[in-house]
Structure formats: structure tokens, C-alpha cells
Amino acid sequence: xxxxxxxxxxxxxxxxxxxxxxxxxxxxxxxxxxxxxxxxxxxxxxxxxxxxxxxxxxxxxxxxxxxxxxxxxxxxxxxxxxxxxxxxxxxxxxxxxxxxxxxxxxxxxxx
Length: 111
Prior knowledge:
Radius of gyration: 15 Å
Helix content: under 10%
CATH architecture: Sandwich
Number of domains: 1
CATH class: Mainly Beta
CATH superfamily: Immunoglobulins
Oligomer: single chain
Strand content: over 45%
């Protein structure tokens, strides 16, 4: 797992730009036109913490932005949380998950 930050504070806007590297049957998927993406944050035990908004920044470059508003992250537990991105082909027949990344959530000091 990749730790995506030295620490993310509860109650702040979560924003993570990400370049995806999808592979199907050993072949890199270069054209993500028509593909959809979704992402979730989960605890180590698999419990859902939050859905993330996934916005395509540049499909040709496989760039997405994962976001979650401050009001939602205020309820995230102080813990190491897992996140990945699921890509779904236009016909729904292929689903690809990114590598799992770790978010270290810290308590806010200034409230």
C-alpha cells in the first residue's frame, strides 16, 4: 500500500489528484473514454467510511481527482484508512481496481 500523505486532518477538504495505470489481461488501457470511476474510503476491517467524488481531469492522461467535503471528513475516524479507485468499462463487463492507498487521518488541533 502507498501512503498518500504524511497526515490528513479531519474536517478539512480532501482532494487527491491521481494518475491511474489500468491494465486488463496484461495490457495497459490507454483510452478511458466512456469508462466510469468510483472510489471509497474504508477502515482496515472493511467498514465503509465514505464514498469519494471522482472527477475526470484528463481521460487521455488517465488523471482523476478524488474529493470529499470538509463536513464529511469531520466524521472520519483518527486512523489509517484505505482508498482505491474502481474503473468500470463502458459496457460494465470489465472492472479494474487501482492499488490500495493509505490515508493517515489526524485529529484537528484548531477547531
